[in-house]
Specification:
- The protein is an alpha+beta fold and 210 residues long.
- It is 14% helix and 29% strand.
- It is elongated and about 60 Å long.
- It starts with a helix and ends with a strand.
Length: 210
């Protein structure tokens, strides 16, 4: 074999050897790492997924009892009793309707009688707002407003003569229609119409004991 041929064979062998070496270095057995698996999302617990919606309902408060109207009531005036230098008379309202109603506040009270030389024929009593906030009256139950009066002196002065009412009219709180009762013929009062602190007035209504 000539020298030229030997040289070519040696060069070819060297090129092949280099190619195999490069192939071995550039092709690793595992060139890509496996992708990491994502953790599974936790499943909702059975208690959470199957919990029933609440079916409980809040209890509504009871509706307020409506006021007693004049048509629900009757009225009577009781006997007078001494209270120091004054007299007290119970003005009693009775629920004559078939329903419960609320009678609270102070009634309007007018005494009607003969013409008074100074004040005229009607005495509108001062009202004191001192009763409870509510008086729930079942059918047949009663409630009372106390009337306090200043009786006339046995020998009244000429400028303030004795005056005896003949009847009483009263308007229940919150109403416009009046009820009437007779006034005792033996009780003459001292009229003090317009006074800041008169000796005659009516108190707020209070339910009577059962």
């Amino acid at each position: 074999m000539s020298l030229t041929k030997l040289t070519r064979a040696a060069v070819g062998s060297a090129v092949l050897a280099s190619a195999f070496a490069l192939a071995a270095c550039g092709s690793p057995a595992n060139s890509a790492a496996p992708a990491a698996s994502s953790p599974a999302a936790p499943a909702s617990s059975a208690a959470e997924s199957s919990a029933p919606a609440s079916t409980a309902k809040e209890k509504k408060p009871d509706a307020p009892t409506s006021r007693c109207t004049t048509d629900d009531l009757s009225v009577s005036l009781g006997a007078a009793k001494p209270a120091g230098s004054q007299l007290e008379l119970p003005l009693t309202f009775k629920n004559t309707s078939s329903r419960a109603c609320d009678l609270h506040g102070t009634p309007g009270v007018d005494l009607h009688g003969p013409e008074h030389p100074v004040y005229g024929p009607v005495d509108s009593l001062l009202r004191r707002e001192n009763g409870p906030a509510h008086n729930i009256l079942a059918p047949g139950r009663t409630a009372t407003a106390k009337i306090t009066v200043l009786p006339s002196d046995p020998n009244p002065p000429a400028e303030s003569p004795a005056w005896t009412a003949q009847s009483l009219s009263t308007i229940p709180p919150g109403q416009t229609k009046a009820l009437k009762a007779a006034w005792p013929s033996n009780i003459a009062i001292t009229r003090q119409d317009g006074a800041t602190h008169p000796g005659t007035w009516v108190d707020g209504i209070t339910a009577d004991p059962s």
